[in-house]
Structures are given as C-alpha cells and as structure tokens.
Amino acid sequence: MTGAGNDRVDEATRLVDAAPHDVYRAFVDPDALAAWLPPEGMTGRFEHFDLRPGGSYRMVLAYDDPQADPGKTGDGTDVVDVAIVDLVPGRCVVQQVDFPSDDPAFAGTMTMTWTVEPVGDGTRVTVRATDVPSGISPQDHAVGLASSLAHLDAYVTSRS
C-alpha cells in the first residue's frame, strides 16, 4: 500500500570519516546492518535477508525498555519489512519500507534512499525518506535517523 497523497519527506545527512566503499559495505552486509541500523535504545535481528534488487529483508527491532515503549508491532518491538528497489554498488540503496501494525497511522509504504558520496577523505551519507507514515512524528524520525547515522559512523570508523 502506498502513502497516497502523502508528500512528507524526512532527510538526514552525516559526514563520516571513512572511505565510501567501507560505508557502502556496511549497507549490504547483514551483520553490519544489524549492528548500526537500529536507533538508540533498540537492537535488531533479521528474520530473513536477501539484499538484491527485487529481494527483501525483515528486521525485528526490540526496545531496550519495552515498558517505556510498547512498539508499533507489539510486545516492545517494531517489525520492518523492506523490499529492495535498487542497489547502485558503492553509491546508493533504495528501499520500500512497511511497518506491520494494527494502527492505521503506520500503514503505507515509505521509500528510503540511502546515498554515499565521497567528500574529501570521507563520505557524506544521506538518507531521504518519502511517504513517511503519519504515525511517525517528524521529531521522532529525525532523532531515529540521526541515531542510525551516528551508529553507522561509529561502526565504519572503528573498522577502517
């Protein structure tokens, strides 16, 4: 289901002190992705992972404190179903993201485009989300995107 009529766009950018190929590798390696993608206060695990155009993955995100946040899916968890739209090796990952939830505010398909661009000795990473479900507040999304980008930065710089 697509977010018909939803023109909301959320975007975040971070400069990372690592080579673009190292950053891109963190987007396509399941262990790396599970390590850095979950925002602060959450951990993630894959139920399946098939990263190729036409492939998909399902990640279960668990809140560190399920009492404080019951989650979109329930039992202190958020589940994300991700369809891979496109991969441009070394440059870009385009995904369509769905949140299985009984709450209609989280219905619809959000498109997330992650781009990697060389800048000097480092990399500019930008994530652009379109058709963001109304149940995700702009403030919470900004915090979550910034947190994931900070985790990505820490992950790749610790390995380069």
**CATH superfamily heading of the domain at 9-37 and 84-159:** START domain
Radius of gyration: 15 Å
The helix tally amounts to 3
CATH topology of the domain at 9-37 and 84-159: Alpha-D-Glucose-1,6-Bisphosphate, Chain A, domain 4
CATH architecture of the domain at 9-37 and 84-159: 2-Layer Sandwich
Bin the helical content: 10-25%
Give the mean pLDDT: 91
Secondary structure class reads: alpha+beta
What is the element string, with H for helices and E for strands? Answer: EHHEEEEEEH
Mass-distribution shape = globular
For the biggest β-sheet, the strand order reads 1-7-6-5-4-3-2
Please explain how this structure is put together.
This is SRPBCC family protein. Belongs to the AHA1 family. Pfam families: AHSA1. Residues 17-156 form the Activator of Hsp90 ATPase homologue 1/2-like C-terminal domain. The structure is a single chain. By secondary structure, this protein is of the alpha+beta class. It has a domain at 9-37 and 84-159: Alpha-D-Glucose-1,6-Bisphosphate, Chain A, domain 4 (2-Layer Sandwich), CATH 3.30.530. 24% of the residues lie in helices and 39% in strands. The chain has a 7-stranded antiparallel β-sheet, with helices on one face. Helix 1 crosses helix 2 and helix 2 crosses helix 3 (138-159). The longest helix has 22 residues, at 138-159. The model is unreliable at 1-5 (pLDDT under 50).
